[in-house]
Amino acid sequence: MSREIRKRGGEKPGPGRSDLLKAIDRMIGVRVLIVGDLVLDEFEYGEIGRVSREAPVLILNHRRVDRLPGGGANSANNILDLGGRPVVVGRLGDDEAGGHLLDLLRARGIDVAGVWRQAGYGTPTKRRILAGSPHATKQQIVRIDRGGGPPVSGAEPSLEQGVRRAIPDVRGALVSDYGLGLLNPETIGPVSDALAAARLPLFVDSRAQLRLFRRVTAATPNLQEAEAALGEPIDDDPARLRRAADALRGTLGAEAIVVTRGSHGMSLFTGDRDPIHVPVYGTDEVADVTGAGDTVISTFTLAALSGSGFHEAALLANYAGGIVVMKRGTATVGRDELRRAVETDPALDRRP
């Protein structure tokens, strides 16, 4: 199947509106394996009351706490809201946070048979405190991270068994590596080998160890990760950007590299065509970038696995990324939102 995706990647230079709408429809029901670090995102909202007498800090009047799936769990949420069917493999702590996150995923009907609870590991929790006046938009003032523990051992059977159990029922895999120990030098090889043996496409989003992966279908590094691969700043130099992407493609054995470039959009590099630079969708008035990378890799993966070429998949991922950064908190993009963006984008008026 990986070879089929590669061939479709160079079908035509400019997918039109009808192509993209058909691509969105094809996403429905596609099963995707997600192997990733599972995180609980917390957002605590308060209103500014007064300055404390104890220290020069604000006292906030608590209003509410939102608890949402983050990390690889956010990727699963995005796959689901785009019409796909996520199958999750990962670990959680044997703690309240892990139980709550598991309940959130189960309540949405997400397959969590491959999720295990590990004693001595704390479910990673990212708590953001947001404050403002009663009628103003709340701003994040501090983030508190807790949880974590030892990396998963290569001798731990739960990870490889979870992947192998899921393989017969999925069309491909998405790795969401936040550097929290699930994927490491001992476990990346066995996971990659199992997927390669089954000829399943592998899509990778890795914070700090992307270059440890092999036989990757596509990866979505950001500009800083691409610079690390090149070993020097890229700035706005397209030649350096291409060298970085080519270096990553060679190291990973990848068919495609999508470099996300913030306000400059994203750039797609494949071996069979010139680079494609996609301008950012929407406005530069960003509300919140929390989890935007999860949305991009999820949309790109689901589109490619449902039959789209890499160009189509990158365009859809760019739309989804532009939509999600306009939302506050850890958010997702739904199929209807993605369709509306494609239907109303004037840039597509010049395409068939």
Which features characterize this protein?
352 residues, 11 helices, 4-stranded mixed β-sheet, globular, disordered N terminus, alpha/beta, 13 strands
Q: Which runs of at least 5 residues are low in confidence (pLDDT < 50)? A: 1-11
Number of strands: 13
**What's the helix-strand series?**
HHEEEHEHEEEHEHEEHHEEEHHH
Structural class, from secondary structure content? alpha/beta
Amino- and carboxy-terminal Cα gap:
28 Å
Rg measurement, Å: 20 Å
- Average residue-wise pLDDT: 92
The spatial strand order of the largest sheet comes to 5-4-1-8-9-10-11-12-13
Global outline: globular
Beta-strand proportion = 25-35%
Query: What's the helix count?
Result: 11
What is the helical fraction, as a range of percent?
25-40%
Main beta sheet strand tally, sense and closure? 9 strands, mixed
Overview of the molecule:
- The protein has 352 residues and is α/β, with parallel strands linked by helices.
- Helix content is 34%, strand content 28%.
- Strands 5-4-1-8-9-10-11-12-13 form a nine-stranded mixed sheet, with helices on both faces.
- Helix 2 packs antiparallel against helix 11, helix 7 packs across helix 8 and helix 10 crosses helix 11.
- 47% of the residues are buried.
